[in-house]
Design brief:
homodimer; 263 residues; alpha/beta; Stationary-phase Survival Protein Sure Homolog, Chain: A; two-stranded antiparallel sheet; 6 helices; 29% strand
């Protein structure tokens, strides 16, 4: 019995199961293990860590990827991970990869990202998890660099594992292979979206709004994901779901008068 | 000119603008400043940090709270905060409060919570922000303790501010005023939901699933929000949106072989 058991790799995303990004990811992961796909049946971008509580979920087996067990689901990316673990794999896969997202999930975008939420959900469930995102929105974009980075990073995670309760956020710059500099371990840059709503009037005379905005990076550090990406590197940020701001606990204990009257 | 300018307090939630929780919060905040309400027109629970990208948003002025400028919005809690800042207040309020949520947002629930995401969005925009949640789902529940805690905590935040890029997550235990022990500053407990999907067959013979689950606390620490809440305390957890797992950076740098071939 010298045959090695292949690792089980769950693939999901938030652009939907028909996007070029998930296809590229499935094809690369097939070299590394037995792939199972559970992904949304339609685009879910901007869904954050949404879960479906008030509606029933549907899940359907589909034949989209040669020799790969695949399901499309009516829910969010987080629902897909939960369903995959509970109903399809019936246990923990060795790795969960989410993406490749068509568009950046660097710095503060991690908060709004369905791609990263799927990976985070897997991590909460004790599964090594990676989110991949490409700094190019176009469905026609060349994914060659993304494929290379995804396979390389997934190989390292399968080999080394990840620290407990840590997942990784991988972003890939929009550069040609010849301008690509390599991969950098980074921290999340301090950045935000400055919103401007585009106000319009509908044919019946009523106002409506489109969310638009400008991404602003306030962070001049050279150890951030934004710096790496703008200098031709792919970025890896280790991400945690313990959101406690431990450094703020003494401030609150020292300044807030909370229990005087309740003694 | 001895008249003090009242602080501006933005109130939002994820249960929708007609829930008893937001009414209680509006009534308490009116004692502390000029209140503006921008909240979803329907329940948004489990929406995480979702934003509305692919649909236009509607916002309508409503008369629900006496002498309080109020709007209902078709979007998510995060959309409400963005719209309030950009279109209604046209600048930063002095405080943003979200809730009072009908149901717990302690420990890992912070990740799935629309209530906390609204507060987090405000904090990303540089506004002091608080999420309030009550460990009782019932719309008929007595909110007296919630009111007391909300007013007390909001008063302290208006007086002392919060550390930069930190918001607070306040959960209120489901106990009578006489069993209430006070307020504790805590860290987020290590806990998760163990999913079980309830599988059913629809009238046309097709499978569908309801998300259900059991909350499991793995954390025996006495400094956690779960400990506080189960011992009759309200919990305050300071929360950050820099998700970088800084402690994992050396592990990745030491173990991952990422750049050998790209040199």
């Amino acid at each position: 019995m010298s045959k090695k058991i292949k690792p089980v790799i769950l693939v999901t995303n938030d652009d939907g199961i028909t996007s070029p990004g998930i296809r590229a990811l499935v094809e690369e992961m097939r070299h590394l293990g037995r792939v199972v796909v559970v992904a949304p049946d339609s685009p879910q971008s901007g869904m954050g860590h949404a879960i479906t509580i008030d509606d029933p979920l549907r899940m359907e087996k589909v034949e989209l990827f040669e020799d790969v067990e695949s399901y499309q689901c009516t829910g969010t990316p987080v629902d897909c991970v939960k369903l995959a673990v509970d109903k399809i794999i019936k246990g923990k896969p060795d790795l969960c990869v989410s993406g490749i997202n068509h568009g950046s999930n660097s710095s503060i975008n991690v908060i709004y990202s369905g791609t990263m939420s799927a990976a985070m959900e897997a991590s909460i469930e004790g599964i090594n998890a990676i989110g991949f995102s490409f700094l190019n929105y176009g469905y026609e974009a060349d994914l060659a660099l993304c494929r290379k980075v995804a396979r390389q990073v997934a190989t390292e995670v399968l080999k080394n594992g990840l620290p407990k309760n840590v997942l990784i956020n991988v972003n890939i710059p929009n550069v040609s292979l010849s301008h690509y500099k390599g991969i950098k371990i980074c921290r999340q840059a301090v950045a935000k979206w400055e919103e401007e709503f585009n106000e319009r009037i509908d044919p019946r005379g009523k106002k409506y709004y489109w969310l638009t905005g400008k991404f602003v990076n306030y962070d001049h550090g050279e150890d951030t994901d934004e710096w790496a990406l703008s200098h031709g590197f792919a970025s890896i940020v280790p991400v945690q779901f313990d959101l406690t701001a431990h450094h703020a606990i003494p401030f609150l204990n020292n300044n807030f008068k909370l229990n005087e009257e309740s003694k």
